[in-house]
Specification:
Elements lengths: L2 E6 L6 E4 L2 E4 L6 E3 H5 L9 E4 L7 E3 L8 E5 L5 E4 L19 E9 L3 E10 L5 E5 L8 E5 L1 E6 L26 H14 L10 E3 L4 H8 L16 E7 L4 E5 L4 E5 L4 E2 L4 E2 L2
Antiparallel strand pairs: 1-2, 3-4, 3-5, 5-6, 7-13, 8-9, 8-12, 9-10, 10-11, 14-15, 14-18, 15-16, 16-17, 18-19
């Protein structure tokens, strides 16, 4: 999604916040993220501009004072869900093909740094197991809402209408300062040095050969730990793909699990992965 990297919310002080940016038309250089705007931070009598992109001049919305608020309902914490249109996770819900087994959403979060509030953690009633599923990540929706959860309130008329074609007024940016050839080469070299190198390739045979506690620590920031991952420690698998961040997806006979390059041994060469 869209991220406002060059702005700071003047209420929660978060930087690089996702969603829309709300700029006060009364106060100078005063911005709010969507969460703070909908939670009535700043003067409710002040009108704001809704910016949809970082270089958007914005569309003015009326003051929040006197505007109607609605309760957000859907796949939020506490919602009851079942398999959705993009389900691709076999019988993780405890049912067979076409199952209507249900589970409860325990949390909503982003997928690392790729997207915001785009995956849901679900605890399935039949198995009492918890797994993570897409609810917007890369355009996929694994779940269908059976009983909605509640997530605060929002000003519906202050948001853009779904399906409406908005003609964005972009702010003209000054041309970038010229960069010498030597400087450009130095910058490119520095970027390459900072980029980790992964020796694994799709089709390689690998084995998870680390202590479980170490593996848990390595999973932080790389998809998180799932108790079912313990089942594949010591097992041989095949590299399915390597992500842009050099995380390695390994295919085992039980089902796909996500591990970093630190967590595997390259069997053909017998050396530790980088």
């Amino acid at each position: 999604g869209i991220v406002f990297n060059q702005r700071k919310c003047n209420s929660c002080l978060s930087r690089a916040f996702p969603g829309f940016c709300w700029t006060c038309t009364i106060c100078e250089d005063y911005d709010l993220c969507t969460r703070c705007y909908m939670n009535d931070k700043h003067d409710l009598y002040h009108s704001f501009l809704r910016l949809m992109y970082p270089d958007d001049q914005g569309e003015q919305v009326p003051p929040r004072e006197g505007s109607v608020k609605h309760t957000a309902r859907g796949i939020f914490v506490g919602a009851v869900v079942r398999r959705g249109p993009d389900w691709d996770w076999e019988n993780q819900d405890g049912g067979e093909e076409g199952s209507t087994a249900t589970g409860t959403v325990t949390s909503i979060r982003g997928w690392e740094n790729e997207s915001n509030m785009s995956v849901a953690c679900v605890k399935w009633m039949r198995t009492q197991q918890t797994n993570v599923y897409r609810v917007g990540h890369k355009g996929k929706v694994d779940l269908k809402c059976v009983q909605a959860g509640i997530y605060g309130e929002y000003y519906a008329r202050h948001l853009p209408v779904l399906g409406k074609n908005y003609s964005l007024q972009r702010v003209a940016s000054p041309p970038p300062a010229p960069v010498s050839t030597n400087t450009r080469i130095q910058q490119q070299a520095a970027a390459q040095l900072q980029r980790p190198i992964c020796q694994f390739r799709p089709g390689d045979s690998v084995r998870v050969d680390l202590d479980m506690e170490i593996l848990k620590a390595l999973q932080e920031g790389h998809g998180g730990w799932n108790p079912k991952m313990e089942q594949v420690i010591g097992m041989e698998g095949v590299v399915h793909r390597v992500t842009e961040k050099n995380d390695v997806r390994v295919s085992f006979t039980v089902r796909n699990r996500r591990f970093t390059g630190f967590c595997t041994i390259y069997l053909w060469q017998g050396t530790w992965g980088h």
